[in-house]
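Morning F.,

Quick status update on the modeling queue. The single chain you submitted on Monday has been processed. Sequence for confirmation:
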Amino acid sequence: MDLLDFTYFIFILVVIILILFPATYLSMNGQTLNLIQQRSVWKDLRILIPCILYAVILGFRYNYAFDWEQYRYTFEFLKNGHLYRETTEKGYLALNYLLIQLGFNYYSIFVFEGFLWIFSIAYILKDNRKALILGWAITFLLMRFDILNLSRQFLAISILLIAFALLLEGKDKKFWIFSIIAGSIHSTAIVCIIPFFLLSKLVVPKKNISIYIYVLIYLLFIFIAEFLMSYLFDVMGYLGENVFQDKAAYTVDFLQEDKFSRKEHFTLVRYLIAAVKDFTYISFFLWLCKRNVLNRKMYVILLIGLLSIYFQIVFVGNELTARFNYYFRTFYGIGWGIIFAYFLSYFRYIPIYLKWGLFIVILHIFYVSFSSISYEFTEFKTFLMYDLYL
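Structure tokens below.
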């Protein structure tokens, strides 16, 4: 088995694990499932085993993607009493220091990040565990490369996701504590704390308003994208140079470098496919709202996923701006899991166009993510391998 085939094998194995274990919830009747959902997630092996397997399989990856080495060096330098980069956030350094004191090697930071990422999704869906059947897999597939490449940021996202779940449970103090911890891991999380707090207070939009907003932002992206991106660069550059002093390298000129542009990857066909996916999500969300079957928690998660669609239209043209949307894009992936769970429960009532739309979306997400593996292998020489003896 060559390296590319091995990479395919590992990612397919991970997706199977993320689907197979929560799929066992389908065999339960409503009463049994409700009893399980009332228990702590720490007592549910259908959650803990996939978290552990994911953490081990991908946590012990060696030199995958671009940023893996800097995380290793951060750990190794700190172990020897030095800093790899003086600008590294203090919370992230503290976590590495704790793992060092416990006697672990540098793989431990990747294992911890992997476990918490999968666990955080399970935690926010603990009251609707059937949503994990596709919620885990789709969220992973949507951002597969970036989850592993930008693992420190996704660690911050994991913590903020748990914080948001606590906020929806009315535990405001814990929300602020976890949010501050997330900001100490990766500075971008700080920007999202107040928006997350406000998003928990959102109300349902009318159908026409939702569709009009989507179309308006889509048109704005097409016709004045350069203006919007230039404004975003000015704001991000100011924050990088003046607010987050540890991010001073992120100047306006740096943000506008061609290497961060994603525009050449987008064609009319891709825009049309994205539009089909997004309108399917919006239509499903509004259909569920109309039938009044969503509890407050599921509603807010789906609505943030909807907002991430709007953000994606504006941010997607640049790699660095797109990273800010990962905090919201995570809800988009989780949202598809929730939609699928309701799809199973209300199958015979769902309009045929939504059934076909969901089928096409799931196939497309799987196809794009797995077809990208060959591209990453060819263009970036990125593949999965293990070398645990180093």
